[in-house]
Amino acid sequence: MSKIKNISTTLKQNLRAMESYGESKHLNRKNGISSKEKIYSFSTMTTYMKEVDRFGSWLASKGMKRITIEEAKEQIQLYINFQTERGLSPYSINTSLSAVCKATHSNISDYDRPKRSIARIVRGVGERRDDKYNERVAGVLINANKLLGLRRNELKNLRVSDIIEHDNY
């Protein structure tokens, strides 16, 4: 495999080849088409492009400006360790790892990474304009969902009949 000038350029080209905007992920699955090599969301593509750029910049900072994809794959675990040492959240690290693995055609399960946990979620955007209003109007619901960890749509559709009471809890 020939050396390339900038690994992030090649990785971004790999991601661009996976663009599948407008296709139905569910229909593809139903028809037996693998969605592993596709990206259906513009926002996912944008995020993945940024993450691949960060990975490429990190490689360049380590003196690896002209490497192959295979050589880049060998550096992924070191990159994840670097992100962990920097104190990035498990969610941010997993997003970064997902992008880099997709672009290098690697398997995410081949790498050690911090485990994600609902208890460790920290809202990264800081205080918002509506926070005080939401706390006043829906404080009990917000606190309940901190315990439940449901998504908004799941919480919206939650019914009393969905709740099962266990004696040992």
Structure report:
The structure is a single chain. With 169 residues, the chain is mostly helical. It folds into two domains: 7-118, DNA polymerase, domain 1; 127-162, no CATH class. 53% of the residues lie in helices and 0% in strands. The chain has eight helices and no strands. Helix 1 (7-16) runs antiparallel to helix 3 (42-61), helix 3 crosses helix 6 and helix 5 (76-85) packs antiparallel against helix 6 (90-104). It starts with 6 loop residues before the first helix and ends in a 13-residue tail after the last helix.
CATH class of the largest domain: Mainly Alpha
As a percent range, the share of helical residues equals 40-55%
Number of helices: 8
Termini Cα gap:
58 Å
The gross shape turns out to be: globular
Order of helices and strands: HHHHHHHH
Reported by name, the CATH topology of the largest domain is DNA polymerase, domain 1
Largest sheet: none
What Rg do the Cα atoms give?
A: 20 Å
Low-confidence stretches: none
Report the structural category: mainly alpha
Number of strands: 0
CATH architecture grouping of the largest domain: Orthogonal Bundle
How many domains, in number, for the residues? 2
- Give the integer mean of the pLDDT values: 84
**Beta-strand level of the residues, as a percent range?**
under 5%
